[in-house]
Design brief:
The complex is a heterodimer. Chain A is mainly α. Chain A is 73% helix and 3% strand. Chain A has a two-stranded antiparallel ribbon. In chain A, a hairpin with a 2-residue loop joins strand 1 and strand 2 (138-141). In chain A, helix 1 packs parallel to helix 5 and helix 2 crosses helix 9. The radius of gyration of chain A is 19 Å and the shape is globular. By secondary structure, chain B is an all-alpha fold. Chain B has a domain at 29-262. Helices cover 71% and strands 2% of the residues of chain B. Chain B contains 15 helices and four strands. Chain B has helices at 3-25, 28-53, 61-81, 88-93, 108-132, 138-157, 159-162, 182-208, 210-220, 222-227, 232-258, 268-281, 288-306, 308-325, 333-341, and strands at 168-169, 173-174, 177-178, 260-261. Chain B is globular and about 60 Å long. Classes of the chains: A mainly alpha, B mainly alpha. The interface between A and B is large, with 52 and 51 residues. Chain B: The chain crosses the membrane at residues 33-51, 58-76, 109-131, 138-157, 163-180, 187-207, 238-261, 273-298, 310-331. Chain B: Keywords: Cell membrane, Membrane, Transmembrane, Transmembrane helix.
C-alpha cells in the first residue's frame, strides 16, 4: 500500500513537472504549429530569474512569489522577442523554425554559462515548503505538492483565459480556422504574438518552480524539452485537456516503469508505448476535428 | 554547364582533393581529422536524402550513427580481448562475463552485416509504424528526437555492457591491422574517403531514378502522390532506411578513426548538430551536405580549440542565419546571383523552393 501510494505520487509529481514544461508548448506548438526548441531555455531563464531575485530579496518565501511573477515576464518577453524577430518570418516553414530556435537555444545556453558560470547554482526553498506532509502513511515533500498545485493553477488560469477573455476567443478562433478568423476582423498576427508571450511566460514560471527541486544549470532546459514535446504529441493539439491528461499519464507510466525496471530502460519503454499509442490514435488523445486532408 | 557535367566535374575535383592533394599535403594528424570529418559527412549525405529530398526532418540520426559505431566498437573490443576473452571495461564494471548478445559480434562478417542491416531495420520499423499512420512533419521530427534521447539515456544507464558515459575506447586493432601504425591510419582515411564518394554516387543514382522523382513528389505534394496510387509511407521509409544505413556506416568507421564512441556522440544535441552542415551546404543539393559537414566540422575543430565559447555562439548564429535567410544553403548562393543577373538563356531551371509542410497539424 505504502509503495503504491508513493509510486502514485512520484508519477503525479513527475507529471506535474512535465505539465508545467508542456503547457506553454501546447499553446505555441499546438495552436500555432511552431516548434520552439528554445522553450527549454525560457525555462532556464525563469530558473535563473529566481536565482537573481533571491540575490535581491533575501526572504526565500517572498522571493519565490516575486520570482513567479518576474519569471513569467522574463520568459514572456524572451518569447515575444523571438516571435517578432524570427518566428514571425517563418510561419510557412514550421520545420525550419525548429532549427532556428535550436540555434537560439544554443546561444542562450552559452550566454547563461558566460554570465552565471558553468557550475550549477542553488536557490533556497522557503521554510514553509521544507519538510513533508503525511498522506496515507507516506511522507510527501511539500515542494512537490507546491509544484503540483502550481501546475493545476496554471492550467486553471490558462483555461479561464481561453474560455472567458476576448483574447482567448481570438486564440481559439485562430486555431480553428485562421483564414476565417482573419476575414472576421481578428488580427491573427497580434493574436500570435500574445499567444507566444503567454506560452513562453508559462515556461518562465515552470523554470522558477524547477528551482525547488534541485540546483539549476545552463542545460536545465534540454533535460525537459524532449519530454515536454512528447506530452504535446500524445496529448494532441488544440486543447489544453489533452496536454493535462498526457502529462499525468506519461508521468505515471514512467514512474511505474522506473519502479519495475531501471530509469534508463523506463525511457525506452515509454518511447515504445508512445509509438504504439500513435498507431491507435495518430492525432493524439484530444484533437480538434477538422475536414482537412491528412 | 549542364548539371551532369557539373556533377561529374565536382565529383572528379572532390576525388582528386581527397585522394591526391590531401594525403600529399596533410600531416598524419590532420589526415586523421579529415577521416573523422568524412565519417560525419556520411551522416550528412543520408540527411540530405531524407530531409532535403524527402522532406523528413530527421532529428535522431545519432541513433543510427551510434548503432553502427557501437556495433563496430563491440567487435573491436572483443577481438582485442582475443578468442573467449572479456573486454577490459566489463572486468571493471561488470561481473566479468560477456553477455550473450555481445557474442555474435566476435565474428567480423556478422559485425559488418549487422552494421549494414540492423540500423536500417530499426529505421524501417519505426518509419513504417509512423508514416503508415500518417504521422509526419513536426510530429515525426519530435519522435525521431525522442528516440535519440532514449538511446543516449539507455547507453549511459547500462554501464556494465555499454561502458556508460565513458563509451567504448582503447581499441588496439581494426580487423587485424594495428591501429597505432600510421600506415594503417592512412588506410582508414582512404577507406572513409572512398566510402563517402560511393555514397554520393549512390544518392546520385537514387535521385536519377523513378524512385527519386517519387521521393521529391512526396515531399512537395504527399496527397497527390497518394491519389496517383503510390504509398507515400513506403517511399519515405525507404529514404529513411537508406539515411540510417549511411549514418551507421559513418559511425562504424568513426569508431576506429577517432578511437572512441560514447553517448556524447549520439544524443539529442549531436543529432541536431549533424543538421548544421547539411543546412549550410544546401539540403537539397548533392555535394552541399558533404562540403557543409566537412566545413562545419573543420571550423568547429579549429575554433573550439582556441575559443570554445565563441564556437557555440558561432554555431547558433549559423543555424539562425542560414536556416532563416538562406533555406537552400550556401550551395545555392551562386544560383541566387545568377538569377539576379537575369540570364534568360540559363538552361538550368532553378530548383523550386522545397515546399516543406505548411501546417504542423496532423489531423
Amino acid at each position: 500500500m505504502d509503495a503504491l501510494v508513493s509510486q502514485l505520487f512520484a508519477g503525479l509529481s513527475l507529471g506535474s513537472v512535465l505539465l508545467l514544461a508542456a503547457l506553454g508548448l501546447a499553446l505555441t506548438f499546438g495552436q500555432m504549429g511552431v516548434i520552439n526548441m528554445a522553450h527549454g531555455e525560457f525555462m532556464m531563464a525563469g530558473a535563473y530569474t529566481a536565482f537573481v531575485v533571491q540575490g535581491v530579496i533575501a526572504d526565500a518565501g517572498v522571493s519565490l512569489l516575486v520570482s513567479l511573477v518576474i519569471g513569467f515576464l522574463v520568459g514572456g518577453l524572451l518569447g515575444l522577442l523571438l516571435e517578432v524577430t524570427l518566428i514571425s518570418r517563418m510561419y510557412k516553414r514550421p520545420l525550419d523554425t525548429l532549427l532556428v530556435t535550436f540555434g537560439v537555444a544554443l546561444v542562450l545556453q552559452q550566454l547563461a554559462r558566460d554570465v552565471f558560470g558553468a557550475p550549477n547554482v542553488d536557490v533556497r526553498a522557503p521554510a514553509w515548503l521544507s519538510g513533508a506532509v503525511d498522506i496515507l502513511g507516506v511522507g510527501i515533500p511539500k515542494t512537490r505538492l507546491f509544484i503540483l498545485a502550481l501546475a493545476l493553477l496554471c492550467v486553471l488560469a490558462l483555461s479561464l483565459l481561453l474560455k472567458l477573455t476576448p483574447l482567448g476567443r481570438r486564440i481559439r478562433a485562430t486555431v480553428q480556422n485562421r483564414d476565417l478568423a482573419e476575414t472576421s476582423g481578428i488580427s491573427t498576427r497580434a493574436t500570435d504574438r500574445l499567444t507566444f508571450f503567454v506560452g513562453s511566460g508559462v515556461a518562465g514560471v515552470a523554470g522558477v518552480a524547477l528551482t525547488l527541486l534541485g540546483s539549476i544549470g545552463p542545460t536545465l532546459g534540454t533535460n525537459y524539452i524532449v519530454d515536454a514535446f512528447l506530452v504535446v504529441v500524445v496529448g494532441g493539439i488544440g486543447q489544453l485537456k489533452g496536454a493535462v491528461i498526457a502529462a499525468f499519464a506519461l508521468g505515471l507510466l514512467q514512474a511505474g516503469f522506473e519502479y519495475s525496471t531501471t530509469a534508463s530502460i523506463a525511457k525506452v519503454l515509454l518511447f515504445v508505448v508512445i509509438v504504439a499509442f500513435l498507431q491507435v490514435r495518430p492525432q493524439g488523445l484530444v484533437s480538434v476535428r477538422t475536414r482537412s486532408l491528412a | 554547364m549542364s548539371p551532369r557535367v557539373r556533377f561529374w566535374g565536382g565529383l572528379a575535383i572532390a576525388a582528386a582533393l581527397l585522394f591526391g592533394v590531401a594525403p600529399a599535403l596533410l600531416s598524419d594528424f590532420r589526415l586523421n581529422l579529415l577521416a573523422k570529418f568524412c565519417c560525419l559527412a556520411m551522416v550528412a549525405v543520408g540527411i540530405g536524402l531524407a530531409w532535403g529530398r524527402g522532406g523528413m526532418l530527421v532529428l535522431g540520426q545519432g541513433v543510427f550513427f551510434g548503432l553502427g559505431g557501437y556495433i563496430m566498437a563491440m567487435h573491436l573490443k572483443l577481438s582485442d580481448a582475443g578468442p573467449g576473452g572479456v573486454p577490459d571495461f566489463m572486468l571493471l564494471y561488470g561481473d566479468g562475463t560477456v553477455p550473450g548478445w555481445w557474442e555474435p559480434f566476435r565474428d567480423p562478417v556478422v559485425t559488418v552485416l549487422a552494421i549494414l542491416v540492423l540500423p536500417a531495420l530499426v529505421a524501417t520499423l519505426l518509419g513504417l509504424a509512423v508514416f503508415k499512420r500518417r504521422v509526419r512533419g513536426a510530429y515525426f521530427a519530435i519522435l525521431s528526437q525522442a528516440l535519440a534521447a532514449a538511446f543516449a539515456i539507455l547507453l549511459v544507464g547500462q554501464q556494465k555492457v555499454t561502458g556508460g558515459t565513458n563509451g567504448l575506447n582503447g581499441f588496439q586493432s581494426f580487423f587485424g591491422f594495428t591501429l597505432s601504425d600510421p600506415v594503417n591510419k592512412r588506410m582508414l582515411y582512404f577507406i572513409a574517403a572512398g566510402v563517402l564518394l560511393l555514397m554520393v554516387l549512390t544518392v546520385r543514382l537514387i535521385m536519377g531514378s523513378r524512385y527519386g522523382e517519387l521521393l521529391v513528389a512526396v515531399r512537395d505534394q504527399e496527397n497527390r502522390v497518394r491519389f496517383l496510387g503510390y504509398d507515400p509511407a513506403v517511399v519515405k521509409t525507404v529514404a529513411y532506411a537508406v539515411a540510417a544505413c549511411f549514418a551507421a556506416i559513418g559511425g562504424a568507421l568513426f569508431t576506429p578513426v577517432v578511437g572512441i564512441i560514447s553517448p556524447a556522440d549520439v544524443g539529442v544535441v549531436p543529432s541536431i548538430a549533424f543538421l548544421v552542415g547539411v543546412a549550410i551546404g544546401g539540403r537539397a543539393t548533392l555535394l552541399g551536405p558533404v562540403l557543409g559537414a566537412i566545413g562545419v566540422s573543420w571550423a568547429e575543430t579549429s575554433l573550439s580549440e582556441s575559443f570554445p565559447s565563441f564556437w557555440i555562439y558561432f554555431q547558433g548564429a549559423l543555424f539562425i542565419l542560414v536556416v532563416a535567410f538562406l533555406p537552400n544553403g550556401l550551395a545555392t548562393v551562386g544560383r541566387f546571383f545568377r538569377r539576379r543577373r537575369a540570364e534568360p538563356a540559363d538552361p538550368v531551371a532553378p530548383e523550386p523552393e522545397p515546399a516543406l509542410e505548411t501546417s504542423g497539424k496532423a489531423s
